[in-house]
Structure formats: structure tokens, C-alpha cells
């Protein structure tokens, strides 16, 4: 993003989604902006199950602060600070996420292991034939 900008990033992201979404099994972990392109959504919904990982804005800010402290900073979407743009970006995207989600998991107060367990439980309910798969 820093070198070629958001447009180039979104084009590369779309190409990767088109390639990966045809796989029979797998997990594609997307950034929040991937679903802003309807072509990506069409590819993914055709062969996928959307899990929306929800978190309160203050939790997202804390997690981003931890990332930045570790030397990893996400490029700004709005020219505001990464943390300063959380509320407006969430407000804009939340209706889309809500509409697309097959499963929503509030990660605000649970750890990664519990998130994974919740997702697996949701997948087993949706796809009972996967009961023996962990």
C-alpha cells in the first residue's frame, strides 16, 4: 500500500480472492475492506461461509495499539490515524458485514481459542457432515 497505493492493493486482493475462492476447502482470512468489492463477494459467497469477527471499537484500538507497539502498523484508510478512523470505518461497513455474515462472533472479550471453538461449532451446525473434522 505504501508503495503502490490502495487501488493496486485492492486489485491484487481481488485476484487472490478469485484464485483462492475456487478451492474445495480452506480458510481465507480477509481484511475488512475485501467485501467492499461486489466481485469479491460474488466469488466468495459462491463457495464460502462468511464469519464476521466483531469487536468493540475500543478493543480494536487496543489490539491495533499492540500491533503498532510491536512494529506493525496498518496503513490509514481515511488519512486519519489508524486508531482515529475505527469508528467511521465501522459505521460505514457494519451494515455490509451484517448482511453478508453466515456467522457472527463477538471477539471483544474472548481469547483466540474461544473464537476458534465458536467458529467450529457454527460450522458444524451449518455443515453437519463435517462433525469429525477439527
Quick description:
The protein is mainly alpha-helical and 134 residues long. It has helices at 5-20, 38-46, 57-69, 86-100, 112-126; strands spanning 51-54, 103-106.
Give helix and strand order, one letter per element, not per position. Answer: HHEHHEH
What does the oligomeric state look like here?
single chain
Radius of gyration: 16 Å
Mean pLDDT: 82
Strand order of the largest sheet: 1-2
For the termini, the CA-CA separation is: 35 Å
Number of domains: 1
Query: Helix/strand-derived class?
Result: mainly alpha
Q: Give a count of the beta strands, DSSP E runs of length 2 or more.
A: 2
Uncertain residue ranges: none
Largest sheet: 2 strands, parallel
Beta-strand proportion: 5-15%
Please, could you describe this protein's structure?
By secondary structure, this protein is mostly helical. It has one domain: P-loop containing nucleotide triphosphate hydrolases (Rossmann fold), CATH 3.40.50.300. The chain is 51% helix and 6% strand. It has 5 helices and 2 strands; from the N terminus they run H-H-E-H-H-E-H. It has a two-stranded parallel ribbon with strand order 1-2. It is globular, with a radius of gyration of 16 Å. The termini are far apart. The relative contact order is 0.13. The mean pLDDT is 82.
Amino acid at each position: 500500500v505504501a508503495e503502490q497505493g490502495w487501488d493496486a492493493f485492492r486489485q491484487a486482493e481481488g485476484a487472490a480472492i478469485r484464485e483462492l475462492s475456487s478451492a474445495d476447502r480452506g480458510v481465507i482470512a480477509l481484511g475488512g475492506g475485501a467485501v467492499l468489492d461486489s466481485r469479491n463477494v460474488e466469488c466468495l459467497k459462491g463457495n464460502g461461509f462468511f464469519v464476521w469477527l466483531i469487536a468493540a471499537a475500543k478493543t480494536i484500538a487496543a489490539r491495533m495499539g499492540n500491533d503498532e507497539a510491536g512494529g506493525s502498523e496498518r496503513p490509514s484508510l481515511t488519512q486519519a490515524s489508524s486508531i482515529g478512523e475505527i469508528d467511521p470505518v465501522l459505521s460505514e461497513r457494519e451494515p455490509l458485514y451484517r448482511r453478508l455474515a453466515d456467522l457472527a462472533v463477538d471477539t471483544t472479550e474472548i481469547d483466540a481459542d474461544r473464537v476458534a471453538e465458536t467458529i467450529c461449532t457454527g460450522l458444524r451446525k451449518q455443515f453437519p457432515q463435517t462433525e469429525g473434522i477439527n
